[in-house]
Amino acid sequence: MDRMNMQENPVLGLATGSTPEGIYQGFIQEYNKGKVSFKNVTTFNLDEYTGLKKDDPNSYCYFMNEKLLRHIDIAMERVHIPSGTAVDLKSECLKYERAIERAGGIDIQVLGIGENGHIGFNEPGASFSSRTHVVDLADSTIQANSRFFKSVDEVPKQAISMGIQTIMDSKEILLLISGEAKADAVAKLLEEEVSEDLPASILKKHANITVIIDEAAFKGTLSASF
Ligand SMILES: O=P(O)(O)OC[C@H]1O[C@](O)(CO)[C@@H](O)[C@@H]1O
């Protein structure tokens, strides 16, 4: 928050999922206290399901509005979330990359991690050189995210996601890891080499990353070496 205040026009990369909700609550609290304004903040979200309309309660657009955007003074024209209902998804991805470039790149990217080590929706096997693209969701991701849907069959099978290179181009990354369900991914991160089989492993090569992890996700592995 302090660093955000220091910059005149910060560009924030935002994530969805349960993990960053506390940060968004913090933003809203600081805004309500009059300590921070989001008027000059530009945001880019990591990803969006394909096929869900913006007002679908399971879309990431809806999530962002509910959890953060409608509570603060951000200018909606500065908010960027890929459109999962665009007629031409490929050109939507290109448009998104260009918009990030035009904004001068992402200053701080807030990031979570999937149970299978995905970042954004870049599943195991995704190329480290990928840019914003349409992805097929892994079965394990569909299962994990089915908790938000009425049934697993309703979970979209595809999404638009910033690519791994897009994420790595962020000037700074804040990686948040919470809960026992992430413990295996964390153990692999600590033990295994950097490999496309574990998308989050590339983060070890980022020059400016902060990791905040809770005890449950850490599961007693006390010799982290990022
Ligand atoms: O924080 P959660 O709900 O475990 O989500 C894990 C990750 O999966 C995604 O939702 C997929 O986009 C990430 O953005 C998120 O960090």
Characterise this structure:
GO terms for molecular function: glucosamine-6-phosphate deaminase activity; identical protein binding. This is Glucosamine-6-phosphate deaminase. The active site is at 47 (proton acceptor), 116 (for ring-opening step), 118 (proton acceptor), 123 (for ring-opening step). Pfam families: Glucosamine_iso. 28% of the residues lie in helices and 16% in strands. It has 226 residues and is an alpha/beta fold. Strand 1, helix 2 and strand 2 form a beta-alpha-beta unit. The mean pLDDT is 94. It has a single domain, classed as Rossmann fold (3-Layer(aba) Sandwich), CATH 3.40.50. The protein has eight helices and nine strands. Bound molecules: 6-O-phosphono-beta-D-fructofuranose. 6-O-phosphono-beta-D-fructofuranose binds at residues 15-19, 46-47, 112-114, 120-121.
| Largest sheet entry | 6 strands, parallel
The appropriate CATH architecture is 3-Layer(aba) Sandwich
- Give the number of domains: 1
Unique bound compounds: 6-O-phosphono-beta-D-fructofuranose
N-to-C SSE string, H for helix and E for strand: HEHEEHEHEEHEHEHEH
- The CATH topology name reads Rossmann fold
Q: What is the radius of gyration computed over CA atoms, rounded to a whole number of angstroms?
A: 17 Å
**How far apart, in Å, are the first and last alpha carbons?**
23 Å
